[in-house]
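Hey, I was hoping to borrow your eyes for a little while. I've been puzzling over a protein and I'd love to understand its fold better. The fold is given in discrete form, as structure tokens running alongside the sequence. I'd be grateful if you could look everything over and explain what you see. No rush at all, and the record is pasted right below.
>
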Amino acid sequence: MTVEALHGAEVAIDVRCLLGESPVWHAPAEELLWVDIRNATLHRWSYRSGNTTTVEVGHSLSAVAPRASGGYVVATRLGFGTVDEEGKFDMLALVDAGLAEHRMNDGKCDRQGRFFAGTMSERRLPGAGSLYRLDPNGSVARVLRGVTISNGLDWSPDDSIMYYVDSEAAGLDAFDFNHDTGEVTGRRRLVEIDRRLGLADGIAVDEDGCIWVALHSGGAVHRYSPTGALLARLELPVAVVTSCAFGSSDLGDLYITTAVRPNEHEDLAGALFRYPAGVKGFPGRSYEG
């Protein structure tokens, strides 16, 4: 099968993040959300006005999702919390308690309003992290153990499969997903990704059921079929590509977060990019708690 070479990603929002992550389209507000992990900031870009608002939170955010009752749910160094429009932070639940070198990483809400996010050791100790689920009632459940760098996740259009990335595992996994309980079973490897192409990071599923995978240190986003075939490769002008999400009024644009590589200079590193994907995706889901 021929792999289509995609080009045309352009800077959408020139807010330079040290470590941009967790883009999510909040459809009711017509705004894109994302975080800068290293600067502990939440960014909001209005599709209507074109204005960007940066909220200083004071906690190391790693993922964000809209909250149905207002404001946002976030993953932080210590666990799950909430942030209001002005940046006021409240802790909801601690995870990996007592593990000082651990932090949370990427996260996302499912269609039932549960927020999933995982942890990692800052030293990348093998198998030290976990994937957690924050339920609408505020309870926390451990979904997976033995994770090294918990990263991107998303669901198939029919909600029967959860796709998941542990970056150090060099690929993309699939699980059978129980949308009633939020439990996962039947883990299997869907895609192997050569480390020389970069490490799998954040992901987004489109309406055709294909999975777009950001490649950290690979300068690209790959599009895979539901059976794991590589369909297309989108080149970007920066090396550290961290995550992606569909957005804009028609959900036809892919927004892509990036980061700065230590001790290296790239003119556009840390900017947020936009690519007209030619296929639509799904809006971000809200946390129902």
User: Anything to note?
Assistant: The chain has no helices and 25 strands. The chain has a mean pLDDT of 95. The chain has one domain: 4-276.
